[in-house]
Automatic annotation (TrEMBL):
InterPro entries: FAD/NAD-bd_sf, FAD/NAD-binding_dom, NDH-2
Entry keywords, A to Z: FAD, Flavoprotein, NAD, Oxidoreductase
All copies of domain FAD/NAD(P)-binding, residue ranges: 2-315
Organism (species): Ancylobacter amanitiformis
Protein's UniProt keywords contain Transcription: no
Name this protein carries in UniProt: NADH dehydrogenase
Family of this protein: Belongs to the NADH dehydrogenase family.
Length: 401
């Protein structure tokens, strides 16, 4: 028997650990029941931290923890899924194609930044979608110090006033002053198509976000979008041009494109619509999880968000259920009653909310400490010790903040 997991993000990592946990509980040997994880590199990208400086340090090794629980790592990039033949074709690092058969498949391929066909975006827009993207941004920012001190050099435009856009924008003044000097006249502008920054976060947190923008000196252009970029600035839909040598794109996410190869329903984010056990309806041998899945996380039909908070718990359920299905055991109903947000607000602190109505629980330094603990402790892989690693992926215990 082989359970194949595609993806080494939060969902894929916990799917592998959870499947190995159930295999261990049932006393089935790894020789008889193989669990394999496919990813280009055996590392977890700590994606929620990529807005920070030194992004090259924001990965965590997975090989030791996978070895500790007898999960095989297969290096490669999954390019094709054949759900009729139960096969996945991967491209290895040396350019060879390899076909892997599976009895059950967990698709944990994550999401990608949505980049529309806006003139100049591909050539001149920065992001923190991947480690490489974040490194490119970091190098660009440090390179600004060698350029003439102009208004454009000191100006950053952030396209998108959602979670990532807010964190990048409020962090940017301090990052730039550390590079350009404490007295540098820094200008950061968020361009947002809706009528409020952090629109999806609701009205409760909004005054705190607006106060933080004011404290950090971040400007906003609301009900406006970016229509074109070049090396010297951006054009906005209201006709305004902003001279800026740094333009950051943070306007939406989509599921990774491999989901399109599964013959099943998808939502407008490209996520596979799954049942409560995270199985893809009509494709009985395939489970989807994390940002690749549109899943209800309670009986009221609340949909899990594209976040590591949900991916971690969803991964544990998906891995357990795929393994249970192979072993002839009942699957578990995915549920995630609790929901929190912890939004970094740069030098203004942070914002911590609880519940889907986002009731504010902590602000300022207290919330900042919570954010730092989440970013530096909670979301990292477990230690490469078998019992602890397996216990960390118990679906009944995986963090439900």
């Amino acid at each position: 028997m082989r359970l194949l997991i595609i993806g080494a993000g939060f969902a894929g990592m916990y799917a592998a650990l959870s499947a190995a946990r159930l295999r261990d509980i049932e006393g089935v040997s790894p020789d008889r029941f193989q669990i394999a994880l496919v990813a280009p590199v055996p590392t977890l990208t700590v994606r929620p931290r990529l807005y920070e400086p030194r992004p090259e340090t924001l990965t965590a090794p997975l090989l030791d923890v996978l070895d500790a629980v007898d999960v095989d790592y297969v290096q490669g990039h999954a390019e094709r899924v054949d759900t009729t033949a139960n096969e996945v074709e991967i491209m290895t690092r040396d350019g060879r194609r390899r076909t892997l058969a599976y009895d059950r498949l967990v698709l944990a391929t994550g999401s990608r930044l949505f980049r529309p066909d806006i003139p100049g975006l591909a050539a001149h827009g920065f992001s923190v979608d991947t480690v490489d993207d974040a490194i490119a941004l970091d190098r660009h920012l440090h390179g600004l110090g060698a350029r003439p001190a102009t208004r454009a050099r000191n100006t950053v435009v952030v396209a998108g006033g959602g979670f990532t856009g807010i964190e990048v924008a409020t962090e940017m003044p301090a990052r730039l002053r550390a590079i350009l000097g404490a007295t540098a006249d820094i200008r950061v502008i968020i361009v947002e198509r809706s009528d409020a920054i952090g629109h999806d976060l609701g009205p409760g947190p909004r005054p705190i976000i607006e106060e933080a923008l004011d404290k950090t000196g971040v400007e906003a252009r609301l009900t406006t979008g970016v229509t074109a970029l070049d090396a010297a600035g951006v054009m906005l839909s209201n006709g305004e041009r902003i001279e800026a040598e740094t333009v950051f794109w943070a306007a939406g996410m989509r599921a990774a494109p491999l989901t399109a190869q599964i013959p099943a329903e998808r939502d407008n984010f490209g996520r596979l619509v799954v049942g409560r056990d995270l199985r893809v309806p009509g494709v009985s041998n395939v489970f989807a999880t994390g940002d690749a899945a549109k899943a209800a996380c309670d009986d009221a039909g609340t949909i899990a968000l594209m976040s590591c908070q949900h991916a971690t718990r969803m991964g544990a359920f998906a891995g357990n259920n795929a393994a249970a299905d192979l072993l002839g055991l009942p699957t578990m109903t995915y549920h995630q009653k609790a929901y929190v947000t912890c939004l970094d607000l740069g030098s203004a602190g942070a914002l911590f909310t609880r519940g889907w109505d986002r009731k504010v629980a902590f602000v300022g330094a207290e919330a900042k400490k919570m954010k730092q603990d989440i970013n530096t402790i909670w979301i990292y892989p477990p230690k490469a010790e078998r019992a602890a690693a397996l216990a960390s992926a118990d679906p009944a215990r995986v963090t439900d903040l």
